[in-house]
Amino acid sequence: ALEHFSRDGYDGATTKAIAESTGVTEAALFRHFSTKHELFLAVIESCGPRELFSELGSDVLSLPAPDGFRRLLSSHLAVTWQHRRWLAVMRHEARRDDAAAEALRMQHQSMGRPLLHLLEAWAERGEIDVSMVKPMRDVIVTSVRGFLDRMATCAPARWPRLQARFTESLTTVLFPPQPAKQLKPDDSQTAEGATQ
Predict the structure, then answer these.
(1) Who's near 121: CB < 8 A, 6+ residues apart?
(2) What is the pLDDT at residue 91?
(3) Cβ-based neighbours of 52, under 8 Å, separated by 6 or more
(4) pTM of full prediction above 0.90
(5) Helix/strand/coil (H, E, C) string of 23-45?
(6) How far is the C-alpha of 129 from the C-alpha of 125, rounded, in Å?
């Protein structure tokens, strides 16, 4: 069903084609799902954003915050690009279907918690200021949403370069490189320098 909804959209996907591709009759499909709408909501539940992005971030906590964030964002954008058609179909249906909108809202809400927990863990390690956790989360969410909105019609050949540039830019904004510390000469170097 996911393939059909992704490729054909909600209106273009037929229960007959979905049933045939899964090797069951349309009647058998309707024994499990009373309507196409019910099937669509089940696909959102099992293959929606929460599931698509569930594996992201499991290894980033072991990295320094900038590197972990860079990896997390790159992975998130790669999954988004890979599933862009399905994500677009879900967003489109959410605009006209209250049940789909609520299902997506609940999934997006639950997705924000891991990002917040990751930022809090970095704050506990002293890598970011604790007072910046929620503002950073808001900047990340808003920036990624804006970037993805602008990239909705991006040519596939341009995506890797634009994704890499965005990832590096946002990482630099959130985790600016620290200037090298100036070494103060100790007294012996100062005295030595004065006698030469």
Answers:
(1) 61
(2) 87
(3) 79, 83, 87
(4) no
(5) CCCHHHHHHHCCCHHHHHHHHHH
(6) 10
